[in-house]
Amino acid sequence: MTCVLCHRPDETENTGTLSSKENVVAHQNCLLFASGLCCENSPEFDDLFGFSVKDVLEEVKRGKKLMCCKCKKKGATAGCEVRRCKRSYHYPCAVENGAKTIEETEQGRFILYCPQHHSKTTGNGTSTNGSSPSASDQSPCQAGPSKKRTVGSPNHPEPSSKRCF
Questions:
Q1: Is there a domain that residue 144 lies in?
Q2: N or C: at which end does the chain have fewer Cβ atoms within 10 angstroms?
């Protein structure tokens, strides 16, 4: 079994465990840090950690247009949280390249900063000037396909009570 997002078969501390549903296989962290995915279901009731097969396949399609900044292969679905930054990676490549990941599990947010921008953030995901690098009045699930981060539904701006952890 190989992850549809990073194309790696191994389960590591960085990638998390592999899960499958309807012939779609993905690592937990590849799903959580994919920029175009929102989790709408409880992981207790779903085999892809709460992500729908349809949404995962749409993210794979989106990623085919993006080249990984580390391995230079297409399929990069994890992007830097800084809106102006165009760096995209396969999730394991981002970690190997020195990206910083922030897990705000209480809010259902999983954030990635490329190596260039992680030094400009503090431990709580804010920039050194105190504002979020991708701050917006919209929910991250409404902000556009490259920055969907919050566990919730596009129809519900606030994160739902069903979260992925």
A1: no
A2: N
The amino acid present at 58, given as its one-letter code, is E
CA contacts within 13 A on the Cβ side of 163 = 15
Identify any residues that bridge with 107 across adjacent strands, giving them in sequence order. none
Terminal Cα-to-Cα distance of the chain (whole angstroms): 22
Number of domains in the chain: 1
- 3-state SS class at 63: helix
- b/e 147-163 (16+ beta carbons within 10 angstroms → b): bbbbbbbeeeeebbebb
Give backbone dihedrals phi and psi of 74, rounded to 5 degrees, phi first. Answer: -70, 160
Residue 30: inside a domain, yes or no? Answer: yes
pLDDT digits (tens, 9 = 90+) for 119-164: 665 455 443 333 344 433 333 333 333 344 434 333 333 333 223 3
What is residue 35's three-state secondary structure? coil
